Amino acid sequence: MSALYEMKRRFQRKLPKAWQHRFQEAIYVLLYRVSPARKQNFFNSGYAPALAELEAMPPFDREPLQATLYDVVLRQLVDDIPGARGTILDIGCGLGGGIRLASVRYPESKVTGVDINATAVKVCRKRMKDLSNVTVTLGNGRALPLPDAAFDFIFSVGAASYISLPEFLQEASRVLKPGGTLSFSVGYTDAQFEQHRQMVENQARKAGLTLRRAVDITENVFAAIAEDTPRRQALIDRVPWPFRGYALNWADMPGTPRYQEYADGRRLDYAVVCTKDA
């Protein structure tokens, strides 16, 4: 673990909770600029087992575990929940892998992606030029630069982990149409699933949403991390050395505090589906 990363950890722990989230966002932006990860389609931990369909479908075949996590959130968990899918929003769209998958799953829909990272937005816009139904916008999940009640369906992978959950739910609810669906994944340390399920239900209610489903996906995520370690290591080896320690932990690599949290059963990842009353 690099000295720079250890300094970052000590500094971040001294910050108030709200500022810890903002500090994480700043690191996220910086890491994109120096990391070869910007050449990938996804920037998430993944979900195992990978869908065989995605393992054989370019460009998702390069990162099928990561694509599968998106598929769980934007399709598998909501297939039995009625509602329109005409206008779709991806909060924290990153490099656009989720947007492209949404365009495959819902080819008649208009898909919008928003991300706080200007570098990611620039790359994403370039990659999505072949999709006439896609718009990519620079913006913060705490204050989306989007009108009220604009989307039938909102999905997000991981973004809520970097925003306080009440803020995320309130803002998602604001831009969600009545009768719309919100589906997202999130992860925390030293958290119990049932406690978080109750917390999400309470916060969703305050945001005008109804919790329809909460699923513990920790085992699937950890299995994907273990399976994907060789590919991640090859990418990290190309990260400039001052940032390599942070990249190792960001990628949940063996030997890092984050990986150990999974190994010790201290990490919780779960997926949530909420609806907004019509």
How would you explain this protein's 3D organization?
The chain is of the alpha/beta class and 278 residues long. It folds into 2 domains: 1-34; 52-219 and 266-276, Rossmann fold (3-Layer(aba) Sandwich). It is 45% helix and 20% strand. A 7-stranded mixed sheet has the order 3-2-1-4-5-7-6, with helices on both faces. β1, α5 and β2 form a beta-alpha-beta unit. α1 packs across α11, α4 (64-76) packs across α5 (97-105) and α7 crosses α8 (193-206). The chain is globular, with a radius of gyration of 18 Å. The N and C termini lie far apart (50 Å).
Taken in chain order, the helices and strands follow as HHHHEHEHEEHEHEHHHHE
- Radius of gyration using CA atoms only: 18 Å
- Major pleated sheet: 7 strands, mixed
Question: How confident overall, as mean pLDDT?
Answer: 89
CATH class of the largest domain: Alpha Beta
Number of domains: 2
- Total number of beta strands: 7
Q: Runs with pLDDT <50, length 5+?
A: none
Instruction: Tell me the CATH architecture of the largest domain.
Output: 3-Layer(aba) Sandwich
CATH topology of the largest domain: Rossmann fold
Tell me what portion of residues adopts beta-strand conformation: 15-25%
